[in-house]
Design brief:
By secondary structure, the protein is an alpha/beta fold. About 35% of the residues lie in helices and about 15% in strands.
Amino acid sequence: MGLKGLVTAGRDESLDCAYGDGSRICKAAVGRGWDVTSISRSGEPVWSSVASSPEKPSWSSSVSWEKADMLKPATYKSMLTDADAVVHSMGILLEADYKGVITGKESIWSGLSRAFSATKAGSQNPLERKEGEALIPQEKDGQLTYELMNRDTAITLAQEASFQNVKSFVFISAAAGAPFLPRRYITTKREAESTIASSLPKLRSVFIRPGFLYDSSRKFTLPIALFGSAGNIVNYAIGGRLTWLAGAAVEKPLKADLVAEAVVEAIEDNGVKGVVNTAAIEGLANKAWRRGML
């Protein structure tokens, strides 16, 4: 296969183990000799925050680290022109309702009520935008909501990719919600998946759904992963009866690099389309490993 052009967009709470950035996907793609561009608000990562060493890794010199605003497609659409695949690797775990509580501008009850409200606004309808038109937050205080960050930026990036005739689009979604998260965290991701699949049929869309991701370079993720593994074993033993209650907390945790390899393998394999769950992620990663052994 010839040189592929890959664009990863945004910082993702999943692929940096703290629920992180798409740099691991970039690393996996560089390993295959692909032409890789990463776009985010900050450009090149601060390596001490995403890796075990503050030193710039050697592979990162092969990535074009570009600055762009995911709410303003005009700042990134030119970077999609020569891409074969685009990955949306950003999102938020928690909204910012707690800030008003901390500063005393809002009561604890009011902050929690807002955080766990059934609905919030995102942007204008992303599919009704003109090409390159910015997303405009619809919450009165301009809050970055799940609807805006987890759903509308994904739909918009997919649409902009389609405008540029990109062949494949990968959305880093999630296996499930969790008891400590508002339900809208996962429903907005599912809304993004369904909208992209139904409204942009020319794209080969892939929806990666991992549970909690861990990595030895982020020590705090290891005990969480251990707890999640134990929960997954118990849940499996009782026929999955805890899934409805615990969600991602009982999904099998995965190593972040494994998921990154699976993403790149999914892009490589034109037969992969739609939802990719934990078992399928592991299967793709194993396929990538075997490919590397040849």
